[in-house]
Structure formats: structure tokens, C-alpha cells
Write a structure and sequence with these properties.
- The chain has one domain.
- The protein is α+β, with helices and mostly antiparallel strands.
- A three-stranded antiparallel beta sheet has the order 1-2-3.
- Helix 2 packs antiparallel against helix 4.
- The protein is built from four helices and three strands; from the N terminus they run ααααβββ.
- Strand 1 and strand 2 form a beta hairpin.
Amino acid sequence: MAMNIKEVRRSFHRLKEENGSISVLTMGLFLVSVVLLILITDIASISVARESLVHVSEAAAIRASQSVDLGSYYRGDTGVAIPIDCQVAYQKAIEEINLWLQSDGGIHRPELQQAWITDFSCTGNRVQLSTSARAVLPFRLPQSATSVEINATVEAESDRAR
């Protein structure tokens, strides 16, 4: 089973011809890994930014639902225990979102550049609020988007029994 010198030289010569193919494969796998890491980071960033938008939307809806229509409340003619003044509620929701945008630190995510109310519905003792925000991606690949628009819809109501 001993190999003669010619067979050893042929085997060695074949190995020399394939020299560098491992380097190309390693560089290719490295590039694929980097691109996947960038995509995963962008997706995670969008997910965290959406959760932040949901939280501010909930805060705005709760603040809006605390806008009691005192005239209707004292007359008792609305059919709900605590009626909401819809105009004041809308203004309070806008104020809450603007306060959040102007805040710093852990409350406001740095990815979120803008936020706005896209839909506001107020009936009786219920407030429904839809918001949108522009989130800037941390990594930007060539030929890809630099920001995305995220949306959230929340609802708050006074459930006090009559």
C-alpha cells in the first residue's frame, strides 16, 4: 500500500492548484455573516422602536381618556358613566406624543425621529388612537431603505359602572 514518489508528487501538485480556495470560501462566508448580522440588527431595532411607539400611544390614549366632559357628566344624559370631551382628548393625546418626542434618555428611542396621530376616534367613554412613526435604521446597506414607517393602534376606555 505504499505510495510511490510519482503519486505523492501528483497529490501534492493537485493541492498546490487548489491553494487559496479556502480563503475565498472563508471571505464569502464572512461577508454573508456580516450581512445577516446587519439585517438582524435592523429588524431588532424596528421591533424595539415599535414597542416604544406602542407605549407612547398607550400613554396618549390614557391621558386622552381622562378628559371628562363635565357638562355631560353632571347632566347624566350620555348613557355612559364618564363621558369624554373629544376635542380636549385629542389635544391631550397630541401633547403627550410631543412631550415624548422632546424627552431624552430612556423614554424616547433614538431610532424614532418623528411620530404623529393618523387616526383618532372618540365615542362616549372610549378613545381609539392610531399612531405612526419614522424609524431610522442603524445600518444602511447600499440600495436599501434608510428608514421605515411603523404603526400602532391602541384603545382606552372608562369602565366605571353607572
